[in-house]
Design goal:
mainly alpha; 2 domains; three-stranded mixed β-sheet; about 0% strand
Length: about 550
């Protein structure tokens, strides 16, 4: 087959395979910008799951029968991304089986905030879509409840109860004024009825989850075999877990030593914990957290341009708002517009506020993690030049194949954002601010702890309490945020990917710089790295390097 014919055949096949993915997960199609999927929730019933699994197997067979030999370099990369994409979904269906044991994986399908926040169509139409989705919520939850095992980890149940309760509150409280401006009373009535019906269904689902939690086991580990499979299909990384653990431990020890040395240079004779506590006291007041974060972003953006370390391809800005109630297990998060969105390109930077029912001690502990230095590092990660700039490259950079936009790797997206925290200080940003460097090291230690606790919790029997203690001792965290970090590890073993991806990018950069010699340019490396979307990082080594070597780590 000639290359042109091969390219055409692969393009047609990949487009069909992605359409099949969106047809099964319509929320994914809607959020990326294909609004014909608006207002639909996935059907996760056993018959549809069986049909989807057969579809995946057929698609993978067709892809492999086509092969990649006749494709150009760009096509071969897209082929590899597509193959991993299908393998990962099959692995989730057959092996991880989150529908049986991990309700946290499904909360996001119920999120209708995109219909409200993004002005891609008349408000009436968007309210109708949100109404349609919420009308389907009771059936969706019923299917999920029937699929869930009675032996779900009590810890996963605890965080799931919080998340689904947050979604009910989101429907009742956060969406109360969402239809303001709609003149058709029938649309408003239907929307409000759907909100309450869905919230009642969520209340019932939460109570059933609580009963499961009361009798469920503490154990949540997926085991070494599934853990290796998660890395192989999700991140394209085939390496012994012992090697992955050793590399993570070495990174942790380097950062622990660096932070102790830096602390002594800042205040000889004082402990890291004392300096961290001092840094933590310098934070915004609860009511000023959002506005002060917004004003901080412009300064970081300008510094990024002044240091000329990456192209900022647009004048677009993101809006800083409070984290939605159903995802407040995270300190902060970036919600960028869909990669295929053509009209509503708004992006939102979520920052998690103090909860109204927290004690003063809990509120102070939470805000200590949003001290001004930490807020800068978090904003680098989420916005400039982390997730938001990555999104801008995908939107405004060279035309990316569809599969590159759709199929992204956890280790690339979070690894890039985490890498930028270290990288921007290497360029001179924050020079003369040793406490900012110490804070960056603290953030690295948090991610180091995620890496090690994920491995140990899921493959070595580490308990939730032991993981909490590990975060407190190695990332200098107070007990409340440390426990929240440990809880996340029970349902998200992939959160090692922050450090894993960062380490793979650093190795790739080191190898690239060595090969380029005097022609090496940091900005050019970053722009090239982001020009491929967000694929599994091992796939990029043969493209960026003349001698890619055998290991991405």
């Amino acid at each position: 087959m000639a290359q042109r014919e091969m390219d055409t055949a692969f393009q047609k096949l990949s487009q069909r395979l992605i359409k099949e993915h969106w047809d099964f997960y319509p929320t994914a199609g809607s959020r990326i910008g294909r609004h014909k999927y608006d207002g639909r929730l996935p059907d996760l019933s056993p018959s549809q799951n069986k049909r989807r699994e057969e579809e995946l197997r057929r698609g993978l067979s067709e892809l492999r029968a086509l092969g990649a030999n006749g494709l150009d370099e760009t096509g071969r990369l897209s082929y590899q991304i597509m193959e991993l994409f299908l393998r990962r979904e099959l692995f989730i269906f057959n092996d991880l089986k989150p529908l049986e044991n991990n309700p946290m994986r499904y909360t996001g399908y119920l999120n209708v905030s995109g219909y409200i926040r993004r002005d891609y169509a008349p408000l009436e139409d968007r309210i109708r879509s949100a109404t349609s989705a919420m009308k389907q919520a009771p059936d969706f939850l019923e299917v999920l409840d029937k699929a869930l095992s009675d032996r779900i980890s009590s810890h996963v149940v605890d965080i799931s109860v919080e998340s689904y309760s947050g979604m009910a509150r989101f429907y009742r409280v956060d969406l109360a004024d969402a239809a303001t401006g709609v003149t058709d009373p029938e649309i408003v009535t239907e929307f409000n009825r759907a909100r309450e019906t869905a919230a009642v269904a969520l209340d019932s689902f939460v109570e059933r989850l609580k009963r499961r939690g009361a009798s469920g086991p503490d154990g949540f580990a997926i085991g070494a075999e599934l853990y290796s499979g998660m890395l192989a299909t999700g991140e394209g990384l085939d390496a012994p877990l012992s090697r992955i653990a050793a590399i993570g431990q070495a990174s942790l020890e380097v950062n622990l030593a660096r932070i102790k040395d830096l602390a002594q240079s800042i205040a000889p004779g004082r402990s890291v914990s004392e300096i961290v506590e001092e840094i933590g006291r310098n934070h915004p007041q609860a009511q000023q957290l959002i506005p002060e974060t917004q004003s901080m972003l412009e300064d970081i953006r300008q510094s990024l341009i002044d240091f000329d370390v990456i192209t900022v391809p647009s004048e677009d800005r993101c809006q800083v708002i409070e984290t939605p109630t159903y995802m407040r297990y995270a300190f902060a998060a970036m919600d960028s517009a869909g990669a295929l969105e053509t009209r509503a390109t708004e992006s939102f930077y979520y920052v998690t506020p103090v909860e109204d029912d927290w004690t003063n001690k809990q509120a102070e502990e939470w805000l200590s993690n949003f001290n001004y230095d930490t807020l800068k590092i978090i904003s680098v990660h989420e916005v400039y030049p982390g997730h938001f700039v990555h999104h801008l490259h995908n939107r405004y950079g060279r035309e990316l194949p569809l599969v590159n936009r759709v199929a992204t790797a956890y280790s690339f997206t979070e690894g890039w954002a985490h890498y930028t925290e270290q990288m921007i200080l290497e360029t001179g940003y924050g020079e003369g601010q040793p406490k900012l460097l110490l804070t960056q090291l603290l953030e690295s230690l948090v991610r180091n702890c995620r890496y090690m606790c994920s491995l140990r919790m899921h493959t070595e029997g580490m308990t939730l309490n032991e993981a909490t203690k590990f975060f407190m001792e190695n990332a200098y965290m107070a007990e409340l945020p440390a426990r929240r970090e440990a809880l996340r590890g029970t349902f998200d073993p992939g959160y090692l990917n922050y450090t894993l991806g960062k380490l793979m990018i650093l190795k790739l950069r080191e190898d690239y710089q060595r090969e380029q010699g005097g022609a090496y340019n940091l900005k050019e490396f970053h722009d090239r790295l982001l020009s491929f979307g967000g694929p599994a990082l091992p796939l990029l080594r043969p493209i960026l390097l003349m001698n890619p070597g055998e290991s991405a780590l």
